[in-house]
Design a protein that fits this description.
Radius of gyration: 22 Å
Number of domains: 3
Order of helices and strands: EEEHEHEHHHHHHHEEHHH
Oligomer: single chain
CATH superfamily of the largest domain: ATPase, nucleotide binding domain
Number of helices: 12
Strand content: 5-15%
Strand order of the largest sheet: 3-2-1-4-5
CATH class of the largest domain: Alpha Beta
Helix content: 55-70%
Largest sheet: 5 strands, mixed
Distance between the termini: 39 Å
CATH architecture of the largest domain: 2-Layer Sandwich
Number of strands: 7
Amino acid sequence: MNNCIGIDISKNTFDVHSLPDGSDLHLDYTSENILEFVNRLTCSQPELIVMEATGGYETPLAVELQAAGLPVAIINPKRIRDFARAVGQTAKTDKIDARIIARFGATLEPPIRPAIDEITRKIKVLVARKRQLTDIRTAEKNHTEHSHNEFIEKSIQIIISAIETQINEVDKQIHCLIAETPELKQKASIIQSFKGIGENTAAALVSGLPELGTLNRREIAALTGTAPINRDSGQFRGKRMTGGGRCEIRRVLYMPTLAAIQHNPVIRSYYLRLVARGKNKMVAVVACMRKIIVIINSMVAKNETWNPKNT
């Protein structure tokens, strides 16, 4: 791929490198510069625009690029760092990072991420906020084990109560947004029909995995990081590993997978067969996670609710 753009984004600025002409651009991260830059790219029509996932800093620019119909790929920063080491690039500046990102895109041609609408984006932000609040609640609960002080215990309980109130408010916002959007409501309803998947997990999948129903079984497994990766070389045969992809989706699916192993006859049967064949229990859980996401992907693609006879 020749006409590729690499963008390195920080809180206040973004750096751009264009292939094959090798031009560099440094801009303040303002609304005016974003719109001007998008107009410039709309005229030049690059084959691919690559940027890192930077905890949300990339969102304003990515949204405008996607709205203009431009091809955007958002990449896990670890993949970019690994690529930089592989090509011997140890120095690190914003300009160098933009060049490496462009080179990564031109060499590996990562898949384009589909644009998501404003409602889905709002749900995604709310789901992320709920995850943050849940982590804080867990940390506070862990503090109670070592408090040994009535005042501190009371203080912790007050904080936990406040956090739980916020979690409930976030849940209400998420469910209202889904209920008000027919397409998302239908997709969430299909996902929830799978025995073991609840309302909150469905919301997280709707917002965090908009590709559901548009990819084949191998692609959706790879996207979620649940596909086994070969580690064979010469006579060496290593263990198959999973990883990469969207770790937040695996995190969301973990507890529902455990529930499905207990209560969903299809998944329970599959899990027990794997364990009986000598598979490690955690390996079997991840395999069940992969099976669940593949089944849900097929259900959404066919616009069909859960039917164990179709698996």
